[in-house]
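Help: read this over?
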Amino acid sequence: DAANTAESFALAMAQAQANLAASDPEFAAAMQSALSGSSNFGPAIGAGLGTGEAVVAEARPENALAPEATSAADRAAWTIVLASFIDTPDAEPRVVEAIDLMRRAGLAGLSPRAERRGNRIAVVAGRYRSAEDAAPDLARIRNLEFDGRKRFALAITSPPDVGQLVGSRPEYDLRQAKVFYDLPDPAYTLQVGVYGSADGASLSDNELAEVRRTAEQAAYDLRRQGELAFYFHGASRSSLTIGIWGPNDHSPQQSGQAIESSALIAARQRFPQNTLNGGGIVQRLRQRDGDSIDVLQESFLVSVPR
């Protein structure tokens, strides 16, 4: 029932905090602000800041859509991601609609097109030398209205193919989010992964560098798929988070539950678990009857550093 669900969620969050604090106190102190909240799931939706609306997609079989081949010039350029869809049968009409909306808005010159990125189809526009060069077009696209709705309010800039990048990118560092974004107060992000040793043991300099490189690459890859992803480096671990969410996206209630926006609910659906080095984290939870069960740790909200 609802009471048991709420209690189980609270137990899971308490266990998650305890495990994190025990394995890496510095990382826990810097990042952990796990909150009680709803784990209800909604449809997949183009990700980004927790405001506005985006074209929605659910599921589809492989090869049902044939995106444009990505040229070497495209792979080396920054783009604007208008929407991102799981590669399913429902994606094709939504991709066509997104491209058509751009053309109706007089932005055919930005070459709106579909690109396959990982297991998603991204609708992208423009080719830019940097995120700064893309900023004016990004602002214009986010403010486009169709039938009174800002359909591309969640559009984001996307980096070149990770193979074209040299070094880390501070704009993907969660510590720098306050520099690049107008943060709500309070501001949260959804932790979906952590990289490092399973037991919190100290790492060599080379091992730590590899952990950090892996987290940064994961953030790059998700950005290219249309997710507003960030990395965060602690003393011995690095984390991967999604989105920037404010009080309009997550509003705790006295009941211990929380009212959450459709965008945050959708992000929880896309990333239901917090993983360790790409694998599930198994937690043992004690039930009210004294029995214990093993569950996979869910993704959870953490505070954005200010």
